What we know:
Layout: H1 10-18, H2 22-35, H3 39-52, H4 55-68, H5 72-84, H6 88-101, H7 106-122, H8 130-137, H9 142-145, E1 152-156, E2 165-166, E3 175-176, E4 185-189
Amino acid sequence: MDSPPEVITKEEGLRLLKEGEIDAAIKVLEKVRQNVDDAQACSYLGAAYCQKGDRPRAIRAFEEALRIQETPKAYFNLAVMYESVSRMDEAVREYRMAAELDPEYAPAQQAIQRLQAQFAAAQPEHETGLAEEIAASGVIDPSIANPPEPELVDVQCPVCLGKGKQGGVFGVGAKDCENCKGAGSVKVPAP
């Protein structure tokens, strides 16, 4: 008895992927990719590699999908992968491209806002922030580009342990703590 013919379609790859047969899905989708330029097949392949934990190959598959066809989803998928490997500049660029192609594409808008808020929280002294840059780009509504400032609370300085002084021997020669400027506490965002 002959074995059934091997099915090599992107639909078969997607079916295998949904059933959790990641390696089999990759095998099928790689063959599809070799035979035809199909953005959707490349996206499925990227998702399979992502589920397998192979981020470099997932990125290459999503880049290939984007090369074949520029869609908001293709830019978004690539941005997610860039973000997962801490390639933040590239992630922001791809999220912005997704939002420029379709200003109504909510996942890209939400990702831009999330990254902008994270950046603002990490860089409070940054004068020309990502928030202003995004608002100026017109990609998102300026009224929501700048989230409210986080509430700050005082906590014990982790450097001087609340003493306000550091250095010296038995209190002789101690100087004001550089971290808290001698106050013994610092302001941090409220939990």
